[in-house]
Amino acid sequence: MAATVVGLSLNVVVVCQSVPVTRDQKPPVCVLGAGLIGGSLLRAARAAGYPAWGYNRSQAGVRAATADGYDVTGDLAAALTRAAESDALIVVAVPMPAVDHLLGAVETLAPDCALTDVVSVKGPVVRAVRAHGLGKRYVGGHPMAGTSESGWSATDSELFRNAVWTVGADDDAHARVWTRVARLAVDCGAVVVPVGAEDHDRAVARISHLPHVLAEALAVAGSGGGTLALGLAAGSFRDGTRVAGTAPDLVRAICEPNRDALLEVLDDTIAVLTAARDDLRAHGSLAKLVEAGHDGRAAFDTVRRWEITDIRPGDHDWQARLRDAGRRGGVFTTLRT
Amino acid sequence: MAATVVGLSLNVVVVCQSVPVTRDQKPPVCVLGAGLIGGSLLRAARAAGYPAWGYNRSQAGVRAATADGYDVTGDLAAALTRAAESDALIVVAVPMPAVDHLLGAVETLAPDCALTDVVSVKGPVVRAVRAHGLGKRYVGGHPMAGTSESGWSATDSELFRNAVWTVGADDDAHARVWTRVARLAVDCGAVVVPVGAEDHDRAVARISHLPHVLAEALAVAGSGGGTLALGLAAGSFRDGTRVAGTAPDLVRAICEPNRDALLEVLDDTIAVLTAARDDLRAHGSLAKLVEAGHDGRAAFDTVRRWEITDIRPGDHDWQARLRDAGRRGGVFTTLRT
Question: pLDDT tens digit string along A264-292?
């Protein structure tokens, strides 16, 4: 497998040399999946000047995208053959359960293309990519954007404006692919945070997957109070349950693949709630929880980002240095050519 | 105590007869506490044509309200004496820990006035009101409105527009006071839901106090992930922790007095989360939680209100009939004179 990977890497260098990319000519992008994220990426990439086309499994999605003037096909082989011929960056933009099928097709039809994804979890994608021998061409991504809507009808070329977009910085990341993925994210209006797969998954368990779980639990508790309770519900319940309006299959596809990290933070949170419950029962006080929560929200409101300027992908130890910078709030809002 | 209460009730009838209220002349309102809710009520009541004045403990609040042209004093005795002289409706608009002190002053200076409150919990207020011998003149209220802001600077005459405002319908509610409180709420733009104190407290534990507790726990979990996690946080975390930005003392004053009902729903919610955690660990699935949560949110999004037209306060068994209607989604958006 290692020999194959090296071979792919060498192939790519040849391809990159044969298709030089200038500032005026953006390299093509092939997006697999034209749902909320993939479809919005198609829109944003085209708006930023990238030649961009896509594949979508459902014919309804293909028709909707085509009707809006986007180049989306239901023919996966055709989309990938075109990607291979034009050295496109391939973006896997489907929920985790559909990733393996697409990677199998990429392995067969476009194994030399640069590869990224916008899936909500990174460890399982990294493992699937490696299992298909595509590891050396892959740098993962995750735009932290979305709504409770889904499908082409919800797509928006401005979805990523000022959103965070993580770009994988594990030790095997290829500098040229890294830069290509990061540039696409920046060109879509996003702020790039470099992060390793494991750090990513632990972080999003806390700030994306746990919010889903708590929103579902709150919705269960509210509806347990029947018409009266739901009729009295106002802003705190509405906001706290907003993401429980997301389609159940999508929530499961987002959260379940991050099982280990989510279990860890769920354990912690159940312990925090149990301690608060016990304090309230024994002493009538929620002081400890409420003060810690208020501090936590204040930390969120005041978290500072700073521009990474001193680390160039490809430099010695660049991946570890990027990961460290990302942990400390470092971002890219622009990329040197 | 019972004899005293009956005496007060008789006194009031005399007062009401001596100060007839027409459609053109709104009865005066005395608001004790000029924070977010009380101050907004002063603004809304005046905008609706009520003679309205208030008391506020802090001189800073008095100055801010006065500067905006509102009649707010730091002299509690003066505010209450004026209330007694003009048969004002007194509105207790302070957090639960400050309620008892104010009721003591009402008992001394204005025991015959109609009395309501806008406190976030009803059982403890009912008990305090009865302890001060004011039960027969009291009908509780709770506008389901607020922000994470507090104090006069956050007040807004439109805060109650289309908000739900519960009005107590326990068996000892006095019909004339009930109507007066409900009319004030409607005139402030609110939708009135009749509800008993116990039903109220169990319902708000689910849709107001639990959201606070879960928001605090989510903020704790997010900040436990440090700068990286907080830097990746987007809409679901922002919305899910919004109310954790509320001042800790205020959150405690809202939640802790509703201990029994909050403990019950916290127990339920910890059990729901524990079962979900166990499912995720054993089967990799969050299906049960996610589907129930989605159903719960859908129930919230589709809850229907209907206008109560066939129950007149003072009719036979009117309080029980109002409570039953409120449980089934019945509201008042207007009140017959």
Answer: 999 999 999 999 999 999 999 999 999 99
A36-81 pLDDT, tens digit per residue, is 999 999 999 999 999 999 999 999 999 999 999 999 999 999 999 9
Q: Is residue A337 part of a domain?
A: no
Q: How far is B247 from chain A (nearest CA, A)?
A: 7
What is the rounded average pLDDT of the residues B233-237?
93
Regarding whether A167 and A270 lie in a shared domain, the answer is no
Domain that holds residue A215: 201-301
Residues B177 and B123 in one domain: yes
pLDDT at A337: 57
Identify the three-state secondary structure at position A75: coil
Does B222 lie in the same domain as B154?
A: no
From the CA of B185, how many Å to the nearest CA of chain A?
A: 15
Q: Is the model's pLDDT at B10 over the cut of 60?
A: no
Same domain, B108 and B213: no
Q: Longest Cα pair distance anywhere in chain B, in angstroms?
A: 72
Q: Same domain for B137 and B185?
A: yes
A225–B238 CB contact, under 8 Å: no
Q: Is residue A336 part of a domain?
A: no
Could you tell me if residue B337 is inside a domain? no
- CA atoms lying within 13 Å on the CB side of residue A60: 4
A62/A235 Cα distance (integer angstroms): 37
Mutation target vs B (from A118, A162, A216, A307; most B CBs, 10 A cutoff): A216
Q: In this predicted complex, what is the ipTM?
A: 0.89
* Mean pLDDT of the region A198-227: 98
CATH code at position A283? 1.10.3660.10
Selected for mutation to probe chain B from A210, A297, A301, A331 (highest B CB count within 10 Å) is A297
pLDDT value, residue A25: 81
Same-domain check for residues A232 and A282: yes
Three-class DSSP category at A191: strand
Token pair 């010695």 is at which residue?
Answer: A316
CA distances to A267, A285, B251 from A160, rounded to whole Å, are 32, 42, 34
Tell me the CB-side half-sphere exposure of residue B245, using CA atoms within 13 A: 17
Phi, psi of B29 (to 5 degrees): -130, 130
Does A310 lie in the same domain as A179?
yes
pLDDT of residue B147: 64
Name the residue among A237, A273, A328 with its Cβ closest to that of B270.
Answer: A273
Indicate if A233 and A94 belong to the same structural domain: no
Beta carbons of A95 and A128 less than 8 angstroms apart:
no
A145 to chain B: which residues are within 8 Å by CB?
A: 234
